[in-house]
Specification:
By secondary structure, this protein is an all-alpha fold. It has 7 helices and no strands. The longest helix has 35 residues.
């Protein structure tokens, strides 16, 4: 079963909808959602889902800039990394998703916060590292919550869904229009 266009669009829309809610600090479900997407070992989707989610969110919120490039490429690279790590595993358990999410957050925050911030904003490496610690702790907390709540839902009802296959959705939509004519 492949990760088709319908599933891809739904996943990007869902990630952006959750991010727009802003009900907790560092409200970022992208890591928790990209893990099941990466499991399918579709390297294009594994890269494009987090990349386009990040870019589209910045476009929606009007904050497109160099930070968009850094964060979207970092997330896309992590999507590729997890697609490679998961291989062709049919089932990835919550424990593996959790540890992958922790590793992903640490890598993401190190690249975007500790390495990129001094280069882009002229602060010292030490300032960036010390300032990143509380942010990363919050990021780990929120990603953990999302992995235990959203990841199983995305995995089961989007990634593994037979109902949301492109051809089945197209047949359903055609049937709707056929019944109205």
């Amino acid at each position: 079963m492949r990760f088709g266009a319908i599933k891809f669009v739904l996943a990007v829309l869902a990630a952006n909808a959750v991010r727009l809610l802003r009900f907790i600090p560092n409200n970022d479900p992208i890591m928790a959602m990209m893990l099941p997407v990466s499991k399918k070992r579709n390297f294009v989707a594994a890269f494009l889902f987090p990349f386009l989610t990040m870019v589209s969110f910045d476009i929606i919120t009007g904050y497109v800039g160099i930070w968009t490039v850094v964060t979207s490429l970092t997330y896309g690279g992590l999507g590729l990394l997890f697609a490679f790590i998961y291989g062709k595993e049919k089932k990835v358990g919550l424990k593996k998703y959790f540890f992958s999410g922790v590793a992903g957050v640490l890598i993401f925050d190190f690249i975007t916060g500790v390495l990129a911030t001094p280069l882009m904003f002229g602060m010292s490496f030490e300032q960036a590292l010390l300032g990143q610690i509380p942010f990363t702790l919050m990021h780990l907390f929120t990603v953990s919550i999302y992995i235990f709540t959203i990841t199983p839902l995305i995995d089961r009802y989007v990634v593994e869904s037979k109902v949301l296959q492109d051809d089945k959705v197209a047949d359903f939509v055609r049937g709707l229009f056929y019944n109205f004519s």
